[in-house]
């Protein structure tokens, strides 16, 4: 009866301000590229509509190029109808944003700024619940229960968190009734706000964001293909992977007995995927200084493979012996310095910062000693 793609939280134009500029640009590009990818999936699977359940834009005032280029990409995908509803980042009272969208939108884009039934097809009606502010604080899907749609199949579209558990992406209070689909006789309820894909009930889903925007959600980002055969048929929902950028956290817990280079290799993603991976490594445990330097060198060697790379060795303690210090020198000024640093690094009366600084300086000494 109807086949559509459900996505949300594209956050077009998101700044990613805590990353270097080249990484920011790549992450923004990946989000923009989601639109043609969704269009291709719609074409491949015979979907007539793409429903975007809010937060298409990251801000209430995106750059004009962000809006225009998104609409141009939707225009190019004219085999499908795009249905845009505001979210909390791009709520319906962002008048300048939605004025510009209305002015430039092609015929195959429908923008739903009001809670009114919208005909998707002859036999299916969409009930939207567009937020008019960042945190509406009430359940905007209430009106679905009594909406008059004659004998059409009913599909809901909403943005926000459900009350069964805390699914709010940015800490807002939870408001959407988890059993709204049942109460309002919906064949499907398409939700946005939560950036991971999540099923809430037999016919209620969060699609999640089609590209990840952080390390929080571990699953591969995906859109949902929804097929509904008739008013009484359950929806057939298929997850279609859409993410291209990988956000990967890894943790290594080391002891001096471990082959630290092999353990490090073991947590690395495949070489081919690293250019599209943000890799956040943290190392804990304790190592002798020579092994530590070997590990640091192995880490430094792989770092340039990645789109973005961070290695946190702050929690990695140093264990050392006199033999280790012999690598630096058997006597003289360097040896004396090394002994002082080793003592400071191990001195629990000192602050963690002072100990870490001593440890880092000692690592440098070992690095120089191993190089010469
Ligand atoms: Mn969002």
Helix content: 25-40%
Secondary-structure element order, as H and E? Answer: EHHEHEHEEEEHEEEEEEHEHEEHHH
The CATH homologous superfamily name of the largest domain equals Metallo-dependent phosphatases
Total count of strands: 16
Tell me the β content: 15-25%
Using the coordinates above, name the CATH class of the largest domain. Alpha Beta
Give the number of helices. Answer: 10
Could you tell me the CATH topology label of the largest domain.
Answer: Purple Acid Phosphatase, chain A, domain 2
Distance N to C terminus: 74 Å
Mean pLDDT across all amino acids? 93
Which strand order does the major sheet show?
4-3-2-1-11-12
CATH architecture of the largest domain: 4-Layer Sandwich
Secondary-structure class:
alpha/beta
Bound small molecules, by name, code or SMILES, are: manganese (II) ion
**What is the radius of gyration?**
27 Å
Number of domains: 2
Shape type = elongated
Tell me about the biggest sheet? 6 strands, mixed
Residue runs with pLDDT of under 50 for 5 or more positions: none
